[in-house]
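dumping this here so i dont lose it
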């Protein structure tokens, strides 16, 4: 059998899962190989004819000359061997609403309420410069718009891990607030970007996953074999709804990373989901729920560990932290998206616990799990009375949970919330770091050698339990060796 290009119906190199789940995409990719469909050229009209989105590259020097919220000029992409690109994705989207009663078990049904809503949005792409170094895994992040602008939270935490492993990354402007900010800040570069409402956001995310499978040139030409969804905070709430209501229908992702969720979920249209919502137990792809200490009081009602859902609560960490802020502040200074580019600050030092190590390990486990490997290791939850009152040791650090070496051998008390600051609401999420006194450090670590030995032992335990990757262990131990402790 041949397709409209005269090629075999299924192109060479397409895996069985890809062929069975996305037959239209296999045909489009076959056309790409024949030169009929390409990104950013007139042949892309064939994708529109098939009812799928078209994807066109934004010229690197267009408008202000750089992607908003992008890493270029902030992260040393040359050192990482990565290239940043940006694309417009245009199509028509379907909207949904609740069908029947949505209960806390997450087994939610939907009904179509509209079709044909035209939209244009942007895709922020980070990919290996050498296509041969692409490992076949793509992370598609639902960009967070809690502060009125796209923020690639998962990219900011795990870009070093993505680069080490050869992942490709796509940040999706999925919501109207983010799209409107793009056109406000750089109307020339983002001319035509328009998301008329957030009701289409769920279908826009699905279309982004389909687009990268159908147009591998977006990520340098390598075949995507594992496509993972991710989202943080308000995006995590939308991913809970996506996992329960859209993924069972669309089946476009191989795994989902829900990072920093509350106990509930986002509305899909006019209806309201239950106050507490678990991930449905019959989902056919794995879901990793990754929580900071800040998130626990609001999410404990939805704690779960099942055959398809794994939850980690990382003690001593905050919803957002100094590491992420150290990346975002220069991005904001360049883009002037919040407070005219002023750096965000709080009343006291922001949480500096190494959450990124747990996130890197979580992505590694989710990738393997999605490819048919074993589920990630289980972790005890953070100790909390009634799920909300976190129990602490005499230094003020949380008990229980995933314990990274920086918390097992602490040099400070790490809190989940801060106060004050110049961005309304931000400091509630950024946490605190209260350094120990010199006397307390001397009690814990009489000598520098004692500190390094304890830290190294803790790092080895974390690696053994699967909470720390060997590469991050090496970085962490080197940092401990260089630290002036005591």
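and the seq i came up w/
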């Amino acid at each position: 059998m041949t397709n409209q290009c005269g090629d075999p119906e299924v192109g060479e190199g397409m895996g069985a899962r890809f062929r069975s789940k996305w037959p239209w995409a296999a045909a489009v990719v076959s056309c790409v190989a024949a030169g009929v469909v390409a990104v950013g050229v007139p042949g892309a009209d064939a994708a529109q004819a098939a009812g799928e989105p078209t994807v066109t590259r934004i010229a690197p020097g267009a408008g202000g000359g750089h992607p908003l919220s992008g890493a270029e000029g902030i992260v040393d992409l040359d050192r990482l061997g990565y290239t940043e690109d940006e694309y417009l994705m245009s199509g028509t989207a379907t909207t949904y609403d609740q069908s029947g009663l949505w209960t806390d078990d997450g087994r939610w049904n939907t009904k179509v309420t509209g079709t044909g809503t035209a939209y244009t949005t942007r895709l922020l792409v980070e990919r290996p410069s050498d296509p041969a170094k692409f490992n076949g895994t793509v992370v598609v992040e639902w960009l967070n718009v809690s502060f009125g602008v796209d923020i690639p939270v998962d990219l900011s935490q795990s870009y070093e891990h993505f680069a080490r492993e050869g992942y490709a990354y796509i940040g999706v402007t999925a919501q109207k607030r983010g799209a409107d900010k793009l056109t406000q800040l750089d109307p020339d570069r983002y001319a035509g970007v328009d998301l008329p409402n957030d009701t289409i956001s769920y279908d826009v995310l699905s279309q982004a996953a389909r687009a990268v499978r159908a147009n591998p040139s977006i990520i340098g030409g390598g075949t995507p074999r594992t496509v993972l969804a991710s989202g943080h905070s308000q995006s995590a709430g939308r991913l809970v709804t996506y996992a329960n209501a859209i993924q069972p229908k669309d089946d476009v992702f191989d795994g989902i990373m829900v990072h920093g969720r509350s106990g509930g979920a986002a509305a899909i249209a006019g209806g309201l989901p239950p106050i507490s919502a678990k991930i449905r137990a019959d989902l056919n792809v794995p879901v990793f729920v990754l929580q900071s200490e800040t998130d626990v009081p609001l999410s404990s009602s939805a704690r779960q560990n099942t055959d398809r859902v794994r939850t980690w609560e990382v003690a001593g960490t905050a919803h957002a932290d100094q590491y992420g802020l150290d990346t975002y502040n220069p991005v904001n200074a360049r883009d002037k998206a919040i407070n005219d580019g002023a750096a965000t600050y709080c009343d006291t030092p922001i949480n500096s616990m190494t959450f990124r190590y747990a996130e890197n390990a979580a992505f590694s486990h989710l990738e393997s799990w999605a490819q048919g490997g074993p589920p990630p290791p289980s972790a005890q939850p953070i100790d909390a009375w009634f799920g909300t009152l976190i129990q602490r040791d005499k230094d003020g650090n949380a008990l229980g949970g995933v314990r990274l070496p920086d918390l097992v051998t602490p040099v400070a008390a790490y809190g989940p919330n801060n106060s004050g600051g110049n961005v309304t609401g931000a400091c509630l999420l950024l946490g605190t770091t209260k350094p120990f006194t010199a006397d307390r450090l001397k009690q814990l670590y009489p000598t520098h050698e004692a500190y390094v030995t304890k830290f190294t032992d803790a790092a080895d335990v974390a690696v053994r339990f699967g909470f720390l990757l060997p590469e991050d262990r090496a970085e962490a131990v080197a940092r401990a060796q260089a630290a002036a402790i005591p």
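The longest strand covers residues 109-128.
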